[in-house]
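Sequence and structure are no longer studied apart. To make this concrete, we show below a single chain and its fold as tokens.
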Amino acid sequence: MALSGPPASPTFVLRRRIELADASIEGSKQPYHEAEGRKPKDAERIVGRCTDSSRRLAREAVWAVLDELRRRDLDVAGCGLLLAAGRPLPGDLHAILASHALIHAAEGEMFRDVLIRASEHFSLPVTRVRERDLPARAAEAIGVAGPELQRRVGEMGRALGPPWRQDEKLATLVAWVVLSLRG
């Protein structure tokens, strides 16, 4: 989601899903799942190949968004990213692969990391917000809290049209935080 305008009453300027998994690479949507149960070298190769591909896709996607927004004469203030609430992952791939819960966490972290790296590649400041902290962070940055904030996000979604999924609502709030901090 990309927002523009005054932070008190932003408008959508771009709605886009970014694909970070290459369908031509087996296991790219869930590389740690694909690596689970494999020999150590094979597991490292699978995760490495998928990560490299996702990094390339993220850079291409961020560039495409930046290019489109700049062609509309819009300045890009930064990128917002919703973080998980979990604990840090162990540094060892094999420790991650030994726990199904860590496998899921590692995949989420990998995809967040490729977006952070892509944003930083284009010198975009990245505002990171933990999902559990988003309502309070948004209320503070925007100056609107609780039900009023939910109502306004709902109105924005109605103006945008369906589908209006939870991930889009959260992405909108994070984008609004970024706009408010930079506005």
Summary: DSSP finds seven helices and four strands in the chain. The chain has one domain: 2-182. Residues 2-182 form one domain.
